[in-house]
Amino acid sequence: MVQRILNDPDNIVDEMISGFLKTHKDIVEATENNRVIKAKNIPKDKVGIITGGGSGHKPAFIGYVGKNMCDAVAVGEVFSSPTAMAFLDAAKAVDQKKGVACLYGNYSGDNMNVKMAIKMAIKQGITIKSVIANDDVASAPKNQREKRRGVAGEILMWKIGGAKAAQGGNLDEVIAAAQKAIDSTRSVGIGLSPCTLPAAGHPNFEIKPGMMEMGIGHHGEPGMEICSLKTAKEIAEKMINIVIPDYPFKEQDEVVVLVSGLGATPVMELYVLYNEIEKLIKTKNIIIYKAYVGNYFTSLEMKGATLTIMKLDQELKKLIDMPAYTMGLKQK
Amino acid sequence: MVQRILNDPDNIVDEMISGFLKTHKDIVEATENNRVIKAKNIPKDKVGIITGGGSGHKPAFIGYVGKNMCDAVAVGEVFSSPTAMAFLDAAKAVDQKKGVACLYGNYSGDNMNVKMAIKMAIKQGITIKSVIANDDVASAPKNQREKRRGVAGEILMWKIGGAKAAQGGNLDEVIAAAQKAIDSTRSVGIGLSPCTLPAAGHPNFEIKPGMMEMGIGHHGEPGMEICSLKTAKEIAEKMINIVIPDYPFKEQDEVVVLVSGLGATPVMELYVLYNEIEKLIKTKNIIIYKAYVGNYFTSLEMKGATLTIMKLDQELKKLIDMPAYTMGLKQK
């Protein structure tokens, strides 16, 4: 039995949204569709930025709605895609006749529903273009990048796309910046313990004590290797050796590094892990321009972490530096 | 076996500090004492705000060092007090001959070490005055408030004391504001699963599946009652019925509400819990001026949550509204 604070598991998403809206009144507001949340005080005449995804990944996805990131989000059930109607309503909520950029992760349900939303939007005179995050190196070989899933790299995609729109970029410029961001980004995850869907009540996969899973997905999708639990230093080496050569990141590259916990790993361990990652990256003469460490994209109460690295150019550097104010990312 | 990302458990605090300093270069910096971290760019001629406590409670304590909150922190081993020397060095790092306010939690080790640090400071010409947080209602009866422990209410005390110092308050004014903050604050915790000290490797207490512990402390200190695991609505009622009558908070009071996870409880459940707490507070005609929901003060990978309520007056309202910029609390 999983020890949870909830009422009816079938109602957890609606109750979570209700609590979220009450807490963050200064950042977000409800819309007519109760599975769509939008930012408050969206600046005039800008491209709308939307996203959407399953629940249980907090702060993703609703935690990245706010100033200079996403303008609206479509909220799905736990670990399952929002409906096409929710994506459409998110677009309608933020459309200012400048077009809407839908920046989301590569999962079959999301792909299907975003495509349907785009078709419906055309009929209503709204232009939606999309960027599909596929930063998870472990989910498919490099020559099949279109099959790779989106993981914590999505946050950097939202940061860049949101900043470009805030700068006044047009739809094509916003899409190009978000696409460049995700094309320059690689991630890998490690799992130390499983999670349990509230409605199921038992884990849908297993990680034995003393073992870990390299390359695990954000919903427990199988990784590349199950091995004995390593030290932080060894884990960092394994993660770096997957992420760095794939892009590949090279000497003198300037990068953003994001280490996210998967939920139940204490934050102090994330800093221990980042401490090792930073040393390894330095050894490779790659320059860390900015680092984010914390619970940025979780999987309920899974233990483990993800490593995400994004290569910067002059444009991306300016956009990553732009202030942001959301529940999940606040930056001066 | 607990599934952790670490190297040597005896080295976890030093490695965590190293990773923390590398990540938050814009907010904090090292000092000569490797167990003391200070804020960057502390404004001139202000009262210094320091705190300190055991590790494993992230963002507490080092996550609240930064603009308009704490100026320096003394870092202890996991769940154990910093040394007297660390408290003293924290004071020395921020002393500007305006005095230093040490705002910390009521635990015997911290009390002893802060008292020693104050004595040593006098000899060096530094004035330290202290406020001891004792917001945990469950830890002693109301007529023995001096025995109560400090829990998540400490964050509100740091917010208020830090803001008062930033406003230019003198030492006595800062101490008075912080004391008023904690005197107006009450908290209670619930535990759903235990945590394990990295060096011990096994939990030092037990919560059976299907059960929960009302009034549990931040280190698993025994609470008031062990009962079957309730729904979010019932848990909210139990927490409210402990916190509200103790102060007591009354009709038309304006309050801050802080719901913190203990580490491994998914954040979506905290919003579900807050959704119920908000309804109950409204029913009592108490006015929620501001709410914080998230992992603000954790206990490694414990499952559970704390509820903290602080009554506001005009002064506290202005101070709680002041911007802050720390790893754990960023507010415009």
Question: Would you give an account of this structure?
Answer:
2 copies of one chain form a homodimer. By secondary structure, chain A is of the alpha/beta class. Chain A has 2 domains: 9-184 and 321-331, Rossmann fold, CATH 3.40.50; 185-312, Dihydroxyacetone kinase, domain 2 (Hypothetical Protein Tm841, Chain: A,domain 3), CATH 3.30.1180. Helices cover 32% and strands 25% of the residues of chain A. The first copy, chain A, contains 8 helices and 15 strands. The first copy, chain A, has helices at residues 12-23, 84-94, 108-123, 153-166, 171-183, 232-246, 267-283, 314-321; strands at residues 28-30, 36-39, 48-55, 66-67, 72-78, 100-105, 128-133, 185-193, 211-214, 225-228, 254-261, 287-294, 303-311, 324-326, 330-331. In chain A, the strands form 3 sheets. The first copy, chain A, has a 6-stranded mixed β-sheet with strand order 1-2-5-3-6-7, sandwiched between helices. In chain A, strands 10-9-8-13-11-12 form a 6-stranded mixed β-sheet. In chain A, α4 (153-166) packs antiparallel against α5 and α6 (232-246) crosses α7 (267-283). The longest helix of chain A has 17 residues, at 267-283. The first copy, chain A, is globular, with a radius of gyration of 19 Å. The N and C termini of chain A lie far apart (42 Å). Chains A and B meet through α1, α6, α7, β12 and β15 of A and α1, α6, α7, β12 and β15 of B.
